[in-house]
Amino acid sequence: MITPISPITSELTANTIQQYSNREPSESISNVFLNALTHLDTDVSAANTAISDYIVKKPISTHELMIAMEEAKLSLNIAVQVRNKVLEAYETITRIRL
């Protein structure tokens, strides 16, 4: 049986706005970027270690090697895309004339 989905309303009540405005930020933006870069570095280091282990014939499967390399590739792609979006936002802000 298919049950109908109630529509999402975009109405914000005064209580909802007050609730969000009183919240303290959980992390600063610099901490978010630092954690993301640390994660990127960890993924790239794991891929480099996997490649080195595979080259010297340590017991690592080809699947594990490829997974480590793909994780590093995806992390790097995400970092580049975030960088591009930040630069685009900066350029947009600098073009605004007050």
Summary keywords:
98 residues; single chain
The total strand number stands at 0
What number is the mean pLDDT? Answer: 82
Beta-strand portion reads under 5%
Helix content: over 70%
Uncertain regions spanning at least 5 consecutive residues = none
Biggest sheet descriptor: none
Structural class: mainly alpha
Radius of gyration: 22 Å
Helix and strand pattern: HHH
Helical segment count: 3
* Measured distance between first and last alpha carbons: 56 Å
Overall shape? elongated
Short structural description:
The chain is an all-alpha fold and 98 residues long.
Compile the SSE list and pairings:
Layout: H1 14-21, H2 29-55, H3 62-95
Describe the 3D structure:
By secondary structure, the chain is mainly α. The chain has a domain at 28-95. The protein is 70% helix and 0% strand. The protein has 3 helices and no strands. The protein has helices at residues 14-21, 29-55, 62-95. Helix 2 packs antiparallel against helix 3. The longest helix is centred in the last third of the chain and has 34 residues, at 62-95. The radius of gyration is 22 Å and the shape is elongated.
